Amino acid sequence: xxxxxxxxxxxxxxxxxxxxxxxxxxxxxxxxxxxxxxxxxxxxxxxxxxxxxxxxxxxxxxxxxxxxxxxxxxxxxxxxxxxxxxxxxxxxxxxxxxxxxxxxxxxxxxxxxxxxxxxxxxxxxxxxxxxxxxxxxxxxxxxxxxxxxxxxxxxxxxxxxxxxxxxxxxxxxxxxxxxxxxxxxxxxxxxxxxxxxxxxxxxxxxxxxxxxxxxxxxxxxxxxxxxxxxxxxxxxxxxxxxxxxxxxxxxxxxxxxxxxxxxxxxxxxxxxxxxxxxxxxxxxxxxxxxxxxxxxxxxxxxxxxxxxxxxxxxxxxxxxxxxxxxxxxxxxxxxxxxxxxxxxxxxxxxxxxxxxxxxxxxxxxxxxxxxxxxxxxxxxxxxxxxxxxxxxxxxxxxxxxxxxxxxxxxxxxxxxxxxxxxxxxxxxxxxxxxxxxxxxxxxxxxxxxxxxxxxxxxxxxxxxxxxxxxxxxxxxxxxxxxxxxxxxxxxxxxxxxxxxxxxxxxxxxxxxxxxxxxxxxxxxxxxxxxxxxxxxxxxxxxxxxxxxxxxxxxxxxxxxxxxxxxxxxxxxxxxxxxxxxxxxxxxxxxxxxxxxxxxxxxxxxxxxxxxxxxxxxxxxxxxxxxxxxxxxxxxxxxxxxxxxxxxxxxxxxxxxxxxxxxxxxxxxxxxxxxxxxxxxxxxxxxxxxxxxxxxxxxxxxxxxxxxxxxxxxxxxxxxxxxxxxxxxxxxxxxxxxxxxxxxxxxxxxxxxxxxxxxxxxxxxxxxxxxxxxxxxxxxxxxxxxxxxxxxxxxxxxxxxxxxxxxxxxxxxxxxxxxxxxxxxxxxxxxxxxxxxxxxxxxxxxxxxxxxxxxxxxxx
Length: 859
What we know:
Number of helices: 24
Mean pLDDT: 86
Shape: globular
Largest sheet: 7 strands, parallel
Oligomer: single chain
Number of strands: 32
Low-confidence stretches: 52-62, 827-833, 846-859
């Protein structure tokens, strides 16, 4: 448009804002303006009106506590409705099914956090945290479909580092996006073809090509370099090309790598209008990227959790392994997990994988008793699934003992021999009886009815078993093998032995049994190797995992880390915080790294003061000397407190004693004498004492209340006496069933209830929530801490319904300890060194000047 037309438009814009286009033409004709000029003015007004509507459409709309430009699909959309139709067809979902409703809502939230495609220039950085094998691909496909409906043009999916996952992702995207709207999409990659430079790049992005462009590539330096150079050749055409880059498995190869990371950033630099969104179930490395590093991939604009799929038959870390209670939760309400984990004795490990690199050559694995049980159970439950005839048609077992391909290959002969041997022994009564005992034992421990599944009798299983053994294949799936799991050519029964190719992203269809003893050193590696996570429709009662007790404990810890991490992430959607003002904190572990050392070099210890927390003992040694020392420490504390307390409240009939206003010196002496188990991260005597001393130095926590909690006093032999006249009946705390855990170790998981944290408060506190109790403590006892002593019976038999528990069987009675800290009234700089986070100290953000806000005054 000429400068004259531009000037005339500005003069008459207010006039054009009222009435229809026809009325606007008549108004301009009255002013005797040339018809050609009128037409150009009208066109300019229409174009700018459309742009304003698109840019400002939802200016007054808030979604998930944030202003947004996108509030959901429209009737005229093409890509999302087609994908929704495909999902309903493939999965049997209805339009109003909970799964589809959840997918719609979560993908809408993510698109709403992207930049508007009409913005002149943008570079968005975001992260989406899902669950392993929980539908992340479906979610980012939904995000892509909705973004395409709103004007995003180029879609690049970085799909792992292996061909298998890239091919699987390409197939899914073609089916759910391209095939439904073939004239709306152009593809730069194919099912068996990663990116190779071909047609002139400009031809895809010029105005004459109105299709969306799809590219699915491996995170491979050669491939990414070719893609970057190809995009560079079309730079002038990319100025108005909104691009969405999805980084699947965003923690793998992306963070702190010498080749892949710079190439991803280079590709983003080629795109003036780009949104980068990482997807992962193990975001630890991504959360620890240096936020102040220029143009790196820290998710500075948003981090969101995908909704938990637990209510839709999903098997995740917490569901399988249980977890510990977080601050603010009642430990009694946190589940122990399903009874589906079977123990591999430590002495078996050296028989199924070499412990040293020098032992790899010539290594020959043994079929141990536990591995034989795992194999036989796999064949039995495959037969049971055939009897049922429901759910996924495939049946897979995973054996993962080593990353070494030579070790993988060494399993083929003994596994196939075991298969053939069993097939030839099905007419032997002793073998049939062994199989029957195994099947009955497993189905009694995990009843089918508990998962709304149909029980299958052993006789029915036995009828089908010969065909299962005949159909079963042993597959070595690794980087050097030509054999691969192929689920596209009919139902599969396979025992897959592998390492890295099976440890991330790739779905093992119909996975029922896993035998896992791989040596692991980091959270993300451990979590991604858990291929047993996912949906098990039609066979939810059948999955089993064989692993060592140590690994089981690590997964339990990891479930707690995940829950805590997701709670931090949810802060972004409920409070006025962003990833640049609040860093997600990650709990550490004494034996595991959070992620690779190179990815943690910019991380810092996170401030996590004891203020407002309740700390409790969960782990114990069970030997006499250790326990006797703790009994002595507890008795000394009670004796000194009886001497100095300002008030005593004795209720032996309720199993309660309370001593008020005990000097903090007695508590410090107790912490010096009492021994916490070294595995207890939250119970560090040195940190606890240091925190108390610092609070005491400024006038707080100088006095404490001491409570003793047991059962109503009974016969003398049932009681534990802390001091003359101070005795309660011992409580029972059975331990978590980890049959091959180190000798002399106990994990009771739950010690202290929410109501115990309020037993020194006045009034009825029984119905108060955890947060309400904290608020009440700050009101009533703002400077007073609480110590609670629990005498635990050394035998502590579990109740019959607790299949995941067994007797404590300590050598002496155990003293459990809980400490409750009031929230500090001022800033508390004391930290416990068991959390790390991204370092936000180098981030410079402009703070709002509240003196300019209506109703505020400067100073």
